[in-house]
């Protein structure tokens, strides 16, 4: 997908991958939550400073390559946008973790996992 090559060498806002939609603001987060009212939304919260987060992201992207379901994938660089991560924790009633995978449907978190449990198995 090329995303990993971009994310570790550039600012996440420069990501040109078509796989992820970036969450760079509260407005982006609100759009993702609104979109979850019509389809499944997956948010991956990633720490660019954490080797576990890098490993989990790599595994997740590899597993997602063959996904044929109807879902939108959102990416949050929580180092660059910690304020948005804090709002996620507060408004969606989940404890902040990294890496963290959130599955939203109808505006609420229906599943979430962190660290090595944040795998693509949660999506399916």
Describe this structure in words.
With 124 residues, this protein is an alpha/beta fold. It has one domain: Glutaredoxin (3-Layer(aba) Sandwich). Helix content is 31%, strand content 23%. It contains four helices and five strands, in the order αβαβαβαββ. It has helices spanning 3-7, 26-35, 51-64, 82-91; strands spanning 21-22, 40-46, 71-77, 100-105, 108-114. Strands 1-3-2-4-5 form a five-stranded mixed sheet, sandwiched between helices. Strand 4 and strand 5 form a beta hairpin. The radius of gyration is 13 Å and the shape is globular. The model is unreliable at 1-16 (pLDDT under 50).
Oligomer: single chain
What is the makeup of the main sheet? 5 strands, mixed
Shape label: globular
Domain unit count? 1
Rg calc: 13 Å
Order of neighbouring strands in the sheet with most strands: 1-3-2-4-5
Looking at this structure, what is the CATH superfamily? Glutaredoxin
How helix-rich are the residues, as a percent range? 25-40%
Q: What distance separates the N and C termini?
A: 20 Å
Judging by the overall fold, what is the CATH architecture?
3-Layer(aba) Sandwich
Tell me the structural class: alpha/beta
Protein name: Bacillithiol system protein YtxJ
């Amino acid at each position: 997908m090329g995303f990993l090559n971009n994310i570790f060498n550039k600012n996440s806002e420069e990501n040109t991958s078509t796989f992820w939609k970036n969450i760079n603001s509260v407005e982006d987060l609100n759009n993702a939550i609104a979109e979850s009212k019509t389809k499944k939304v997956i948010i991956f919260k990633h720490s660019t400073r954490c080797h576990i987060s890098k490993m989990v992201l790599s595994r997740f992207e590899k597993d997602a390559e063959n996904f044929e379901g109807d879902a939108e994938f959102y990416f949050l660089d929580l180092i660059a946008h910690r304020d948005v991560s804090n709002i996620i924790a507060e408004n969606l009633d989940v404890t902040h973790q990294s890496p963290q995978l959130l599955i939203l449907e109808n505006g609420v978190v229906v599943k979430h996992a962190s660290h090595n449990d944040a795998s693509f198995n949660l999506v399916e």
